[in-house]
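stuck on whats below:

***
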Amino acid sequence: MPEWIAKYWLEWLFGIVVTVIGIVVRKINQRVKETSAKNDAIELGIQALLRAQLVDDYNHYMAKGEFPIYARESFNQVYKQYKKLGGNGVMTDLHDKLIELPTPIDKD
């Protein structure tokens, strides 16, 4: 028995190491897939929230017929981030229409 152990211990050790590495790689791969799915969900959720804000601003200021500078800056920042997240052309149309609205003039 000790001869057998002495003769094959390296093969056994190699087999155990390869098995452990395989298990670790599978667990890491699973974790990466889960994290990727969560990141995708977060990205889509943020994009939906930004879209809702853009639509809300559009409806609000189109009804008023004017678009104040402070709101314009905020709207443009939200729109820029929405586009970075892969936003579609519908919001571009809303953006372009809203930007055409006049800016109210302060009454002294």
Notes: The radius of gyration is 29 Å.
